[in-house]
Amino acid sequence: MKKKYIEIYHTLVEDIQKGEYLSGETLPSEHELSSRFHTSRETIRKALNLLSHNGYIQKVRGKGSVVLDRDKFEFPVSGLTSFKELSERLGQSFRTHVHELTLVKEAKICRQLNCPAGASLWRVIRAREIGGERIILDKDYIRQDLVPELTKEIVQHSLYNYIENELELDISFAKKEIVVEPVTEEDEVFLDLKGHHQVVVIRSYVYLADTTAFQFTESRHRPDKFQFVDFARRTKG
Amino acid sequence: MKKKYIEIYHTLVEDIQKGEYLSGETLPSEHELSSRFHTSRETIRKALNLLSHNGYIQKVRGKGSVVLDRDKFEFPVSGLTSFKELSERLGQSFRTHVHELTLVKEAKICRQLNCPAGASLWRVIRAREIGGERIILDKDYIRQDLVPELTKEIVQHSLYNYIENELELDISFAKKEIVVEPVTEEDEVFLDLKGHHQVVVIRSYVYLADTTAFQFTESRHRPDKFQFVDFARRTKG
DNA sequence: GATTATAATTTGTATATACATGTTTTGCAA
DNA sequence: TTGCAAAACATGTATATACAAATTATAATC
């Protein structure tokens, strides 16, 4: 099946990004959109709810779907955006240094990933260089029973691309934490810290669509180069 | 109107929090829930989508709604949680020091809030003390045309409570940014920095349901006491 | 012309049906 | 007992209708 409402969502996102609808303006009414896309109003509403959820529009009862100004948050470290997408969006030169790609057994991480204590995990350690400076250190632990093979080429190119497109694993959600911590010896070795004594640490547990815990990631950023941008909707009730 | 699906959402959240459904288990099927709540399946689905969106469940096709383990992220600085909710959840003693409550005209902030350049803004500066240490400095700019009156009591007690419950303004969404910056003289004066030379800065633009930009907030945290926890769903397409 | 009442427009909620798609269970057959 | 096919079950998508509630446009009245 094609999932009409997803198609309509993408069409409308493109239209907004092309400037067809400016911020402050309203989209065509649900009724008009449904005749324009030859579909029912409920299907249009599903597409509009996606737009609303992702911060493209605000629906105002009796008025319409008002287009929001997304200019102020064009840096989505948010969501589950990967390093590759990120640096491409920045338009800066980037490199990835693979420092480790090994199989390990770490009972503590296994327990948090809900896999057997003796299970093998891939440990991937990569330094990210942007604009000539190594500013991010990524430490990944991935269940080997779900990803049997990993090569240096894969982790250097795009791990997520391999996992989602080659292995066709359905990455669905993540729990993440952002804190600030003192630098470790590892940070000193692999990063250009420029005198900084603390790093911003993003720890994530990544889950597949079937709720399988899949990966634990620790992303360590030099504080002056760190930015997290988010769109948050208030849950009513 | 009562909004059945909101009611059902809250009922199910309470049930999950009471441990009626354990993580890993599935909720009753949509069909069973609809007969249990005497409503249609679509209404149940709206409630379940809210649960899914807020990280309580993961819907798995053909299987059911699997309850997720929320233990690992019980510290939602996320969303738009206010300081009061936050410290109460922490269960620690807290105090608010009001250092400033004045009307100012700041063209730059006015422009970003889309209000006339000459408009008056409330500037509220508060230091937050938790466990005997002043670790958060909140600087708020609020449009006076939307909030005509503010007193020291209000900003000391709960600003959001006043705005939402007394003025009945409908706070709907926010754009926020998290960065790390050097401490300012102001930070030195109002916070117990304990030798830290950087603070975590959360800048937020807060909007009402009718898309009116309403408030700009800068929340400055001592890095060792800062934590941001989030549940992020991957947008498909 | 200004104010007010009415109608039209637009989004929100609730319900119903049909069929698609993925999972689990059941039952039959080898 | 094992293996496979079919049925039962669960969620996903698409469509339709009716009414509620908020806003905007229109018309009527003073």
TrEMBL record, chains A, B:
Signal peptide: none
Keyword NADP tagged: no
InterPro entries given in the database record: Bact_HTH_transcr_reg (IPR050679), Chorismate_lyase_/UTRA_dom_sf (IPR028978), TreR (IPR012770), Tscrpt_reg_HTH_GntR (IPR000524), UTRA (IPR011663), WH-like_DNA-bd_sf (IPR036388), WH_DNA-bd_sf (IPR036390)
Domain HTH gntR-type: 2-70
Domain of life of the organism encoding this protein: Bacteria
Keyword Membrane: no
One example of a Gene Ontology biological process annotation: negative regulation of DNA-templated transcription
Pfam families, alphabetized: GntR (PF00392), UTRA (PF07702)
Gene Ontology molecular function terms on file: DNA binding; DNA-binding transcription factor activity
Gene3D superfamilies noted in UniProt: Chorismate lyase-like (3.40.1410.10), Winged helix-like DNA-binding domain superfamily/Winged helix DNA-binding domain (1.10.10.10)
Assigned keywords, A-Z: DNA-binding, Repressor, Transcription, Transcription regulation
Protein name from the UniProt record: Trehalose operon repressor
Phylogenetic placement of the source organism: Bacteria, Bacillati, Bacillota, Bacilli, Bacillales
Name of encoding gene: treR
